[in-house]
Amino acid sequence: MGLDAEDQGEDVPAAAGQVFADAVAIMARLRGVDGCPWDREQDFESIRRYTLEETYEVIDAIDRKDWKNLQEELGDLLLQVLFYAQMAAEPGYFNITDVIEGLNRKLVRRHPHVFGDQASAAAGNTSAALETSGIGAEQVLRNWEQIKIAEKGSVPDFAAKASVLDAVPRSFPALLEASKLGSKAAKSGFDWPDTDGVFAKLEEEIEELREVIPGPERNAISSEEQNRIEDELGDLLFTTVNLARHLGVDPELALRGTNQKFRRRYAAMESASISPLDRQSADQLESLWAGAKQVERSLPEPTR
Hints:
Layout: H1 16-31, H2 37-41, H3 48-63, H4 67-89, H5 96-109, H6 112-115, H7 117-122, H8 137-152, H9 174-187, H10 195-212, H11 223-246, H12 251-272, H13 282-297
């Protein structure tokens, strides 16, 4: 599959292909016989945590609007892709060319409103019946899902996959996994009809959590009680994530925003206090916190 030169974008340097080829060659050298001992020792499992770290560092750079740092972090994230592809190429699973060609075909196939007949050919005409003329972003997403279903086959293979929820990776961060599970279940009709239903469930989960927490007269909590508390708290968190879904809010971004807000306010408390915070009384800490909130509210709304 090839695209015309004008389709590739005027801002893409002609040297990008060579620079990328150099990066692939460097990665192969690092994994080679005379390469880096550390790189050669790594496997798919050992670098997973670095992939997560680099992904979150990309998000952090975006949140801070630090474009220079974002450039560097995107390079670090690209390194993860090159690393996985090189490790896969060594036993012959696939190589980086397979990865990119697969991505190119998918992008064309799932954008029939942009690529027209070329997309239909790439999709085996599965996109022919889709609405593609003058559509908006919501229809684009509906088309994407329809094409995705057609690619995987319209009839679920229950022998190979026991549940539609199996499509949600268990390795996702917990908030993202909960949101995706709720979305998948909702597509089958298993969902609250409106936000009132979610709020009612949230109140129910809060009450159930209260019921399993021992009273203040207890000095110790048994392991069984701790397990019940963890279970009920998990239910409460899951329901909260689904409330976010109903409200059209990304729970991960919402919590990240609150984390940043807490950082700012706590730092303001530290700056305003004439002595370390651990020497302040509860009332003094509360007063400092209220002051930090008041100051922040008088400032322009921070960008996330």
